[in-house]
Amino acid sequence: MKKFYITTPIYYANGQPHIGHSYTTIAADVHARYHRLRATPVLFATGTDEHGQKVAHSAQAQGMTPQEFVDNIVGSFKQMWQRLHISYDRFIRTTDPHHMAAVQHIFSQLRESGDIYLGEYEGWYCVPCETYLAEVELVDGCCPECGRPVEQVTEQAYFFRTSAYTDRLLEHIESHPDFIQPKSRRNEVLSFVKEGLRDACVSRNRMEWDIPVPGDESQSIYVWFDALINYLSQVGYPDKLDEFNRWWPPQIQIVGKDILTRFHATLWPAMLMALDLPLPDVLFAHGWWITDSGDKISKSKGNILDPYEVALELARISTATTAVAVDSLRYFLLRQITFGLDGSFSWRALLARFNADLANDLGNLLNRTLPLVERYLNGVIPEPGPGAGELSDEIDHARTKFEHELVHSDFSAALTAIWELLSSANKFLDTRGPWALHKDAKQVELEAVIYDVLDCIRVVAIMIEPFMPKVSDEIWQQLGLQSAQIEKRWEDCRALKLPSDITIAPGRPIFPRVDIKRAMDQLQAESEEQSEPTAANTISIDEFKQVELRVGTIVEAHRIPGADKLLRLMVDVGESDTRQIVAGIAQQFNPRELLDVQVIVVTNLEPATIHGVESHGMILAAGADEPEALVITDSKCPPGTIVR
RNA sequence: GGCGGAGUAGCUCAGUUGGUUAGAGCGCGCGGUUCAUACCCGCGUGGUCGGGGGUUCGAAUCCCUCCUCCGCUACCA
């Protein structure tokens, strides 16, 4: 049986939903709605990723328990999706018990099969230098720095054997040209995989707000391993196999380009191969919306746009209803730029689309046709009669093109197909001139022409439903099809399917035209008013407080072999252990001159591995590109002293 | 630093395997129409296709080189 399973990423529950989340989700919604119109069973799944240190931290900062914190965020997401007319079927949370059970189950299963192994952090260690060294860094088997012999060490962590799947993955990508889209991303992934995949560390030292490794309470399961499994657990894996088999695999998984290469296009398929499950048909990575710097009107509270705020503003400017404004924004986001590429948001572009495409071409077609029905046909849809169906070819062409473009998620091209049809309809109305036919008393011909145009509007209403569901409903209503309880079905996107003898119900213009020049002046004025006290890139005191700064004393400094810009520092920040920090200051400072220097350290930065060396913090230094001077204290302070 | 992509009309972009006068939408100008939200329809405006060199009977399209922007990646945590 045919089915359509589509996913968005599950969004990290660390902050409010923004335009990036919304863009992904709206795109997925379009696919889902389109397939529902085609009467294909659809499962459209989204959700939230709720584990990890960052969530625990943010919760603490706001004086909440992690659970309270994520519950609150989940509320915001669900509200946003409702406001943006998102028709998701499932909303999974990684804190759902059945998901957590699934993650542990899969972890155990892969550990039994040998795909997950308790890793020995294959490395060498120089005791005097306290340095971890990779095989390639050794000089004659000894420490490259002090020349003394090194010891082999094993730090325990669980690894997933990604490397074992490099060849199979490569083969799969090459034999499935549509697996990763768009093409440019596919090429990137290919070159990434060709370098060879490294085994992924899938556990961390135990944190409270994580899923524990089964049978090993000292470790937690890595959040990405946890998160990716949502795509399986939300369709019933592993205990509801009937349901699972019905939906698996996904027809398309939409992700942002930032999480494609490392996660969805490598780790994720490797996990599925290890579980012996089919891979998704398509992974589609889309681009970003950035605010247009040449257009200062973007709200000055930082550059993250709240899509609902934008819609409310559009509603205010245009006097359209909020639902129509939301749909207009949905239209704009998917029409303006090619899905997959980056684009910049500007009010001018949004308003231009609103006027030209929505108000003029679509809205006005409806608004010039309905009065004709009222005037010449007593407000009742006529019989098609002989000669009707003249727009049949145009309708078929638009439908076919739309279907073709949507296969490749080219939303913009799909919408272009609809607008070509609208253009044909407008032209048809002009050339046939029902008002002239009426004067000449050619009633039969007049009815045929009006029928054809109404029929065409009906088809357009169906075709725009995935993009603008509420607008579609409104047009349906005005055509009288709502009250007549006619359903929208994709198969009815053909000529001569409009029922007759239905009384139309004209309403106010759906898209009230905007005076763009005036609107821009107004927005500009408001924007200046608001941005007066705060410059464009300010942050609040609360945001600043999230950065934890402490005084630290450098107790050791070493060069890192093979890296000419990096130093490995051991810094005392008042904790029981000194911290290892990697700093890109080797070309400006000698290791020796740094000893006992007191610097300022960002202590709550997430750890990172740089050139194979773990770094647990950041040293502050002046200089935009190159570090020019270290930030130091002017008198001795105890290590660990808070800086603010 | 490495790999990749892109630079085409005022703006946003199409341009398939090199082939007659380089296209669309928006904007702008003119005309038509009057059913309509100063809308719609038609016509027009506008580009030495990033610079330079080369291959070819012929290049936006292939090759070389330079410039600019972007993405991924890497020793900027």
Protein traits:
Methionyl-trna Synthetase, domain 2, alpha+beta, elongated, six-stranded antiparallel sheet, six-stranded parallel sheet, RNA-binding, Isoleucyl-tRNA Synthetase, Domain 1
Give an overview of the whole structure:
Helix content is 43%, strand content 17%. By secondary structure, the chain is an alpha+beta fold. Among the domains are: 116-160, Methionyl-trna Synthetase, domain 2 (Beta Complex); 307-492, Orthogonal Bundle (Isoleucyl-tRNA Synthetase, Domain 1), CATH 1.10.730.10; 547-643, OB fold (Dihydrolipoamide Acetyltransferase, E2P). The N and C termini lie far apart (62 Å). The relative contact order is 0.09. Strand 5 and strand 6 (131-133) form a beta hairpin. Mean pLDDT is 85; it is low at 293-303 and 531-537. The longest helix is centred in the middle third of the chain and has 31 residues, at 347-377. The protein binds one RNA strand of 77 nucleotides through helix 6, helix 13, helix 15, strand 20 and strand 24.
Shape designation = elongated
Number of strands: 27
Helix content: 40-55%
CATH superfamily of the domain at 307-492: Isoleucyl-tRNA Synthetase, Domain 1
Instruction: Please state roughly what percent of the residues sit in beta strands, choosing from under 5%, 5-15%, 15-25%, 25-35%, 35-45% or over 45%.
Output: 15-25%
Distance between the termini: 62 Å
Give the class from helix and strand content and strand pairing: alpha+beta
Query: What is the C-alpha radius of gyration, as a whole number of Å?
Result: 30 Å
Tell me about the largest β-sheet: 6 strands, parallel
The low-confidence runs, each spanning 5 or more residues with pLDDT under 50, are: 293-303, 531-537
CATH topology group of the domain at 307-492: Isoleucyl-tRNA Synthetase, Domain 1
Mean pLDDT: 85
- The CATH first-level class of the domain at 307-492 comes to Mainly Alpha
The CATH architecture term of the domain at 307-492 is: Orthogonal Bundle
Strand order of the largest sheet: 3-2-1-14-15-9
